[in-house]
Amino acid sequence: MLSSYSYSALGTFQTCPRKYKFAYIEKIDLPKRITADAYMGNAVHRTLDMLYRNPVAAAVPLEDIIRFYLAEWEKPDKKDIVVVNEYQTVDDYINDGRKMLEDFYDKYKPFNRGKTIGTELNLQFELDGTSFKMKAKIDRLWKRDDNVIEICDYKTGRMPAEGVKDKSFYHQMGIYQMAVRAKYPHWEEIDLAQYFLKYDEIIRRRLRPDELDELKEEVRTSILETINAERLDDFPTVESGLCNYCEYFKYCPAKRHKLLLDEEEAAGEKEKTSVEAAAERTDRYLEQYNQVRLLTAELEALKQDLIRFAKDLDLNKLVGKNGEVLIKISEAEKFVTKTADPKAFAELSHLAREIGLEEYFRLDGRALMKEIYKKERLSPEMLEVFKKFVVNTEETRVTARLKKDNIDEE
């Protein structure tokens, strides 16, 4: 369990639980890797921080701002900066950041409006109704001339799609508002603003009290999800277009089998290894799957072999010439069933009815587990009573991905 949680940490867990484990639980010590897009974003943020920290910001000429920004790019060796986009160079990123700053300067000069309360502001608070500690880092907090407090967040990347944009704004900026309210409870009017510098666009809105209450519950349940994942060591990988930017790529159980195969091929290994054996079994599994699309006895045996290989090699994706097989092994909490333990099931049924949860128990043990027990919507005393009815079982799921028709089935 982390000592404090942030929008970034919870967002990482939602995007890819395995990356969350690498970054926040195992805290893997990685070789320093500087990506051009991340460095450009940091350089722009540091430049704006310098500007608004200056007591006479209105008098700072554009030349000084650009000089400061370009000096930031002199700190690292350019050859050490990684450019993921093959169609761009480091100089392209330098110019992108420079243009953002020039456009920002032209739009908001002479920077004498309102009062800056803080920049790069680190705030800590306790999530209402819980003992969970939260933290937030705010790019700029200021009081406008209309006496409205504005929480600013500067974005140097692409604008997300509409649905994603609304959700990310709601979560990130809502957490920032909670942090500011905890620090300054007397402030009533607070605006939230995200400045997309590349597009010269601002998303600005206020969150209603009911929206903040809903967000608090979402954050609370998100934290509980991370705690349950840590307790059960259940951190599955979620592959997406972000994988190519992930600093933990070579450690990832979904990527490592392919990397190991490539390494052995490059080294000219002659003796068959477990890695190659797993690849052969993966190919055989996929061939059988393609022919029958049913879980025959032989296919089930191959499936169990793959599960064993995945356990032995600590992988959750096995790669063959014809495709790949995803293996998910996790501990799952379930309430006892009537078939497995009639007596315990009867006791649990009686207990649920006694405290008014009959609609969950008539019976949907999965809903009771997901919506009540895991989200801790009972008193600590009742959670302990229910805990004795919880059993741990190993669950496995094998998913075949065929290259030919790109069909995913289980």
Please provide a written account of the structure.
By secondary structure, the protein is α+β, with helices and mostly antiparallel strands. The chain folds into three domains: 7-227, Alpha-Beta Complex (Lambda Exonuclease, Chain A); 253-321, no CATH class; 337-388, no CATH class. Helix content is 46%, strand content 19%. The protein is built from 13 helices and eleven strands. Strands 3-4-5-6-7 form a five-stranded mixed sheet. Helix 1 (7-15) packs across helix 2, helix 3 (36-53) packs antiparallel against helix 4 and helix 3 (36-53) runs parallel beside helix 5 (90-108). It is flat. It starts with 6 loop residues before the first helix and ends with a strand. Residues 406-410 have low confidence and may be disordered.
Write the layout of secondary structure elements.
Elements lengths: L6 H9 L1 H9 L8 E2 H18 L8 H11 L8 E2 L7 H19 L6 E12 L6 E11 L5 E7 L6 H22 L6 E7 L4 E5 L3 H24 L23 H12 L6 H19 L4 H17 L3 E4 L2 E13 L6 H13 L10 H9 L6 H8 L2 E13 L5 E2 L1
Parallel strand pairs: 1-2, 5-6
Antiparallel strand pairs: 3-4, 4-5, 6-7, 8-9, 9-10, 10-11
Helix pairs in contact: 1-2, 3-4, 3-5, 4-5, 6-7, 9-10
